Structures
1.
Amino acid sequence: MAKHDPDLSLLFHALADPTRRSIMTRLSEAPARVTDLAGPTGLRLPTVMRHLSVLEEAGLVATSKDGRVRTCAIVPEALAPVRTWLDEQRAIWDARLDRLDAFVMTMMREPPT
């Protein structure tokens, strides 16, 4: 059975929603106020706050409050486990495809019987 990493599952869950990915894309440019993040989504502020709480729980976003203004910033290093997992998967599939290529090339060189 494959290893189960709850942190990785939490990260993929947070990134699974297109609204949250859109928020992450916006925050990759610069920190932003919650109201600025809510505008382009067309969602009400409480809904955006729920999306932000999922991102914050996964460690992808950090928020700070100055008076009544809540500002969000991306935490890029939080994506490291996702990158590591994807790199491992790429290596596995590259090795499998290399073996398949070698097998096909061997079959093509052998004369039919």
2.
Amino acid sequence: MKVRSVLLVNAGSDADIVTIANDGTFPALGVVSLATVLRQDHPDVDVIAIDGQITPMAEVERLIAEFSPDVLGVGVLATSYENSLRLAELGKNAGAVTVFGNDQATAMGEQILRHREVVDYVCAADVGEFSLSALVSALDGERPIESVPELLYRSPDGIGHNRLPEIPADRIKGRGGALKSMVLDAIPVPDRTLMPDGNWNRYLDNYLNRYGMFHEGEKVTGVTTMNRARGCARVKAPCHFCGIMDLNLRFSSPEMFWDEVRTAQQQISASIFYEAFDSMSSSPRWVKAVVEAKPDDIGDDAKFFVYTQAAETTPRLVELYQRLGVYRVNMGLESGDTRMLKFLKGPRDSLENNQRACRLFKEAGILIHGSLVLGGPGETPESLENTVRFGRWLIDNEMMASLEAQPLYPDFGALTGKWMMDPNLARQVAKDRGFEILDDKLLDLMPSKYGSTDMVDFDDVSKDWSKIFSHASWDELIDATHTIRSYAERVGTITGSGRMTQTTLGSL
């Protein structure tokens, strides 16, 4: 075949999933970045990128029918899987080759291809831009399918998986020396004009409706996401519930960082930037280099929302954030109980460190978006109550601009999910770390219950997890979630929850 048109869609959340605090306010940049590389590598291909989180499903369906793409690429999260399958079905009916990518596709790629004939390929790359471009070349007959990096596909021998480097060597700039870790310079600055103007207008409206009160006296002209660094300092010992596949630290050069800021200002009048670096606090040296490289023409209008960690927060880091223009941080606080924090995250984490970080940011005038995870390994009614009390402390002391809370979901790409799929590993970890397996028989059923399916119910797997690993029952976890969220909402703090259904949470 000859690929002449590609439609890239970030699938919107399924109907029964509650929103999180940032839903629909910041763009799904992945589809824009994919479209940018495709346009550069295949200039004759017509490429459109849209975000199903803000574009109604009926419009997406109509676009598939009218555009009739040769290739339909879908960004898939666990929270949008049913919608993604619907899009794949529509794509196949329109004659498209269908490709799934993003977190859920990476974690469940083999199961998806075994169960879903409407999905032709799965891209498991963390940096998927060059894999998708290579796939288009393969579909055009210009290279073998076996040469496409991190691609999963059906073959006569079963499911093939090309475990090849995601970024081609000839794309990496400045190899060696001081720039050896600046591999993300290979990813070009996204061309945000490849997403319809209506999407950008909707992001801005959503942001102002939800967060406009934080910008009194300021003019917010546009919002965008960017991702010029990736990874986390916890790469060797990740948080137990973290499902990010590649936590190795990788960066763009400071010059590339500011080039993207400048381009986004010019293309969509961006003034608010959500830098999706998995943990900005993991590399204060890089932050310092970015701050010192800031060009004079950028001005002070560019404001940043960044991921950060309490255990890594120091006065020096906060001062760097202020110089960069950080106005809000996304900080996973997870628990108000030191014992649980050490189980969930590691030895450096504690309630004291959580509180210290919150105070430092508050004193600096930097807003905090916080999150709490309930029902970790060894959770007890007492530790759960400590977290509820901590949530009240955060709200009473006006620490939180927004706050999420939910029971732990054992992502199958995370350590918690791996314990569910490997009972012997779970028992050994429990013995080594000092928590208890509460239902051995149920644990032994987990590999057969979830190991071969591509469709996982969030509530079911969270309930199973709590029965096996948490002394606090599922009902107690849900009650605590309601208590935290309702307490926050009574005083006007924005709340949300990530992987929970409307049926479970009901109306507050």
3.
Amino acid sequence: MKRPLVIFAAVIAAVALLVAGYLGGRHQATTAPAPAHSSVTAPGTAGKVLYWYDPMVPQQHFDKPGLSPMGMQMVPKYADEGAAKDVVRIDPATVQNLGVRTAPVERRVLASAIRVPGTITWDLRQAITISARTDAVVSKLDVRAPYTVVKAGEPLADLLAPQWSSALAEYGALQQAQSADAKDLRAASRERLQVLGLTPADIRAARRGSGAAITLHAPQAGVVTTLDVREGQRVTAGQTLMTVNGLSTVWIEAALPQGAAGTVCSGTPVVVTVDALPGRLFHGTVETLLPDVDAMTRTQRARIVLDNPDGALSPGMFASVQLNPTPDEAVPVVPDDALIATGTHTRVILAEGDGHFRAVSVRTGRAAGGYTEVLDGLHGGEKVVVSGQFLIDSEASLSGALQRLNDTTAKPASAASAPMPGMPMGDGQ
């Protein structure tokens, strides 16, 4: 009887040992992985990692850190990231490893210089048309080709006109008259000569000569831009003979983009350079903005007046025009790399410290020198992300922050655009 009892006691003891070993293994399995999971909770935070994911393929979830199938370092998704609306959180160590860079929102005066192409043209205010005042014949042409340079008073052409000859003969016959009636006739004859287009110099020259031909002289120094008659040709009263254009000043027509035309006005100073004259700078001002816009290029022309005392600038030359509008006041600006254009609006990502980021809708203005003016959404002093936005965009898409931003684009969250406490305001330095 004792032997079966001994055997039964031994079996009970073995079962007890097996149960104790099983329970001890369960306890050890529960507590042992704690060191391995210590990376699940970020240092200094109470958030718990729900899963790990590849920033390039955010829809794939993994239960352990490491490299994704694409070879990218996976980042954690924390359970407490939904606590702050429109804010996403990324492990600061991951932010540093992926090279996410930020830049402050500064207040500065954007460079306002505008460079546009231009073309030199004639100053039409210096154009003088020489026409026939009466029927005549061109007996001699002193200028026989267009674009001939002439001096003031230089002979241009000789005309034979019967009306001139008779009027000059009448005026000459009355030179010696002494009576009052004869003097009145003489004055009337002189007025007739003036109506026929003869100047006092022409009258004196005709009296000294044969009186058969009248010489036309250049009224100013310049270039004969058009020559409409030939020697021996018969012309009628009012017919244009030639046009003399001065070169002491020239016009430049500069093509301004519509976005820049609003900053230019009459009196804006300009500096002009010409490839044909390297090293020379020509200074002038904008005279006016022409009221028409080119339908093909969508540019508006600005007329610029330049002094050209030595005649170095010739119409038709290509010029590079730098316009210098009056500098504006300092405005909030961000680097061009910080802007994310979606097609419907533009946003930036604010860095709020400790791995927290917020997407903010902004309204932009002018751009110059690698910076863009922010008209609404930022005040200056905030920090914006300028590289690594792909990581934050994917995280924001997971948390729904961008969807909430898209639903509120009409009001870009004044709280997000206000500077953080303790953050210095940009002063444009």
